[in-house]
Every structure is written in C-alpha cells, then in structure tokens.
Specification:
Layout lengths: L4 E4 L9 H14 L6 H8 L4 H12 L7 H16 L6 H11 L3 E5 L3 H11 L10 E3 L11 H10 L6 E5 L2 H9 L3 E5 L13 E3 L5 H5 L1
Parallel strand pairs: 1-2, 1-4, 2-3, 4-5, 5-6
Length: 214
C-alpha cells in the first residue's frame, strides 16, 4: 500500500443508495413545486450534504424549503432503505481483504450519522466499521466540496493528509479530496470518468481498487 489510510465515501461507493435517494429527492422537490428529474438530482446533489439542497433551491427560486423538509426527506429515504438498500457489489469482499491485509480505512460521508447507521445496519456493513472510523458532514462546519470533512477524518485517524487516499464517486467529493491535499480515485459505476476529471485514476468495480493503490 502506498498510503497509510483509505478514506471511503459511503453513498454510491459502499452502499448502493444513490438511485434510491435521488429518486426520492427528485420526487419530493417536484411535489413541492420545484420540478426536478432524477438526472437533475444526480447532477446537482449527488455527494452533497442536505444544506446544499436548501441553498440551491433558494438561489434558483427565491423560495425556502419547508422547515420539516429534512425530516420528511430522511423519513422517506430510510423507509425505502429498509426495503431496497443493498451494499455495492464487492464492498464486503473489499473490506474483508483490507482487514486481512491490515490496511487502515475509515468513512467520510456527506450523509448524517443516522443515515450512515441506518444504511450500514440494513446492508450488514456495520460489522466492518468501528464508530470511531465513521465521519459525517455533521462533524464539521462545511461539507464537500470543502476539504474540512476529509481533513477532520485524517486528523482523527492520526494520519497526515498526504498519506491518505480518498475513494469517491461524485465530483464534489473529488474536489474536496484534492482541496485537502489527498490523492483520490474515482469510482465510475454511476458517474462517468469525465465528471471525475480531478481524480488520480478511475475504476468501475471495487475489486480493481487494491491493485490501483498498491
């Protein structure tokens, strides 16, 4: 391993949540009078903290989302997770290999701690993460594309940024990793490589990752 720590994004990298959450988000925004397609949601909000939704809607329409927007959105997403959520193909095999090889890893997600916890319990990925290895945009002042979350994760794990590598599937996440002074590899299962152009390299299957980082 060329790195001392792998920092994983969660949604779309370890849990296959992006199709579920963006379908629900697009539908809810449209319901509230802000027409949004699934493709719009992926383009504008994939990899971002929920405050970005509020900020963009306000900037574009001059209207604020309802006070209970976050609560309603999360309730709908969590209900769907219980029925539909799966781990990304190869996630458990990859984490098992890292553990066997003694490679340190953690998770840094734009999602809330509750969202991460629910997703991991449903998919069984909770057995691969200590609580102290999980970091959320809730822990810092600014979410991705600011570098704060990745820098916070590295500091808490006791690893200098230059010895960390980030695994991301969103343009915002790639931008945040580069701003943190970290190498980053783009997962192209849902996002074309040209939208992750700032990455050091790209891969389309989690089984390819260990070789890239060796």
């Amino acid at each position: 391993m060329r790195y001392d720590l792998i920092i994983f994004d969660n949604d779309g990298v370890l849990v296959d949540s992006e199709p579920i959450s963006n379908t629900i988000l697009a539908g809810y925004l449209s319901e509230l009078g802000h027409p949004t397609t699934y493709e719009d949601s992926l383009r504008d909000f994939m990899g971002s903290a929920v405050h970005r939704i509020h900020d963009l809607v306000l900037a574009r329409s001059g209207q604020r989302l309802p006070e209970d927007f976050d609560k309603t959105l999360h309730a709908r997403i969590f209900a769907a997770f219980e029925q539909e959520l799966k781990p990304v193909a190869g996630a458990e095999d990859l984490l098992g290999r890292l553990v066997a090889d003694g490679v340190s890893y953690c998770l840094a997600s734009s999602g809330s701690h509750e969202r991460i916890r629910v997703g991991h319990l449903v998919t069984g990925l909770d057995e691969w993460f200590e609580d102290s290895w999980i970091f959320s945009s809730q822990d810092v002042g600014r979410g991705k594309p600011a570098p704060d979350l990745f820098l916070h994760a590295a500091a808490e794990m006791g690893v200098p940024p230059e010895r960390c590598v980030v695994v991301e599937d969103s343009p915002l996440g790639v931008e945040a990793a580069r701003a943190a002074g970290m190498d980053v590899y783009g997962f192209t299962a849902m996002t074309p490589a040209d939208r992750l152009s700032g990455a050091n390299g790209w891969f389309s299957d989690l089984s390819e990752l260990p070789e890239l980082l060796a």
